[in-house]
Design a protein that fits this description.
2 copies of one chain form a homodimer. Chain A has 132 residues and is an all-alpha fold. The first copy, chain A, is built from 5 helices and no strands. Chains A, B: InterPro entries: LOB.
């Protein structure tokens, strides 16, 4: 007999009711997804978070809870705050690079303008041949 | 009589033991810090995460748990994954801006080089006065 319980009810060793709060977001073919969030938040906290949300956005909430739980399993000290720190660093680096390149472009722009002005002057010098 | 219980033990209405796992990271003058992590993770899950870590990094872990709990309270659907998405978008925008500006600098560079070459040629044209 194939079990029709969701991953959460299987994990919690309980009957999966027809109105199971976990069932739509924790399918039986991905037991690790529930194992992770269960380990970090506990079943009652996940149920509470999901129940407090309208049905159509519970899937998105379950996804982000899984993502955060997964991060916390990989990095128990920083969780996904470690990723946020890393991304802030990347933004800082990109902004530094951008500032440098903007300064470089200002120098080149000024140089191009000066040379274009010089060229313009040269083009408008009276033709010496015409005077002889 | 002033209470010497930490914020966690006060919240949980229990005696604060001398070796309290929460006490160093959840001081009594910041009750909201524990209230947030308690609401999202539950006391036993926070205790478990802290206990599994060496003492010297538990403070950092408590900080990141508080940060994530705070994010989840503000945005129950995405938690701090919402911030990660936002930062990824910022990095994408910075990279796009960087690519555009790099293309612009390549054009200006080529222009500056061409004009410098032109100027060099003009400077080496024999002086017509010398021929007369």
């Amino acid at each position: 007999m194939t079990s029709t319980r969701c991953a959460a009810c299987k994990h919690l060793r309980r009957r999966c009711p027809p109105d199971c709060i976990f069932s739509p977001y924790f399918p039986s073919d991905n037991p690790q997804r529930f194992a992770y969030v269960h380990r970090i938040y506990g079943a009652s906290n996940i149920a509470k978070i999901l129940q407090d949300l309208p049905v159509h956005i519970r899937g998105e909430a379950a996804d982000s809870l899984y993502y955060e739980a997964h991060c916390r399993m990989k990095d128990p000290i920083h969780g996904c705050v470690g990723i946020i720190t890393l991304l802030h660093q990347q933004i800082y680096n990109a902004q530094t690079q951008l500032s440098k390149i903007q300064a470089e472009i200002a120098v080149l722009s000024a140089k191009a303008q000066t040379e274009s002005h010089y060229q313009h002057q040269v083009e408008h010098v009276p033709n010496v041949d015409e005077n002889f």
